Amino acid sequence: MGADGSTVRPSRRADAQRNIDRILDAATTLFAKSATVSMSEVAREAGVGRVTLYGHFASREELLTAVVDRSLSDATAAMDEVVDDGRPADEILRSLVGASWSTLDRYRRIRVHALAMHSNEWLRDRHDPVLERVEALFVRGREEGTFRTDVPVTWMVTTLYTLIHAADDEADNGRLDRADAPALVMQTVLGAFAP
């Protein structure tokens, strides 16, 4: 209620943002469950009309792009929570992989949908802000003597990126327990890149 006792309606902007959040939540849930997701299904799951859905996302591709961007924003936020408290780079990397895995698990199968519409290069480019942080950590680890120096840093980053997504695929296909994946990824990375 307003100061004068009248009912205060949320601003249109707040309503719009709530709708966008509900749509993205619904799309994330549906894309995680099914290989084919229609805009009608997303609208129904989000509890909004098709006009509202299309008012925010003109196409399925635009919606999926927004879900990918949101997942990467969440991954960045999870990485921000990993405190660099002076531990060796490999220990911090282990924490980052764990945080990233948790986010990846929440957005399961989104990558599969994105690759059905876009190239692997498009998806990799969208990961650049996250991967730049990983690259900086590998560089620091090389300076500390934690990681080998005879392999290009870009290859180290590519290897980690590929392993995480391969682990996600293996877990989705039931060949790997999701809970074991972060440790297995780190074991592989450290086996390959320890001096």
Structure overview:
It holds the Pfam family TetR_N. Residues 17-75 form the HTH tetR-type domain. GO terms for molecular function: DNA-binding transcription factor activity; transcription cis-regulatory region binding. It is built from ten helices and no strands. The protein has two domains: 1-58, Homeodomain-like (Arc Repressor Mutant, subunit A); 59-193, Tetracycline Repressor, domain 2 (Orthogonal Bundle), CATH 1.10.357. Helix 4 (60-80) runs antiparallel to helix 5 (89-106) and helix 4 (60-80) packs across helix 6. The model has no long low-confidence stretch (mean pLDDT 86). By secondary structure, it is mostly helical.
- CATH fold field value of the largest domain: Tetracycline Repressor, domain 2
Return the average pLDDT rounded to an integer.
86
User: What's the Cα radius of gyration?
Assistant: 20 Å
Please report the distance between the alpha carbons of the first and last residues. 65 Å
- Mind describing the biggest β-sheet? none
- Percentage of residues assigned to helices: over 70%
Any idea what the shape is? elongated
Order of helices and strands: HHHHHHHHHH
GO molecular function, one term: DNA-binding transcription factor activity
DNA-binding region: 38-57
Keywords: DNA-binding, Transcription, Transcription regulation
Organism: Solicola gregarius
What's the helix and strand layout?
Elements: H1 12-33, H2 39-46, H3 50-56, H4 60-80, H5 89-106, H6 110-117, H7 120-126, H8 128-144, H9 153-172, H10 181-193
Helix pairs in contact: 1-2, 1-4, 2-3, 4-5, 4-6, 5-8, 5-10, 8-9, 9-10
Domain HTH tetR-type: 17-75
GO molecular function: DNA-binding transcription factor activity; transcription cis-regulatory region binding
Keywords: DNA-binding, Transcription, Transcription regulation
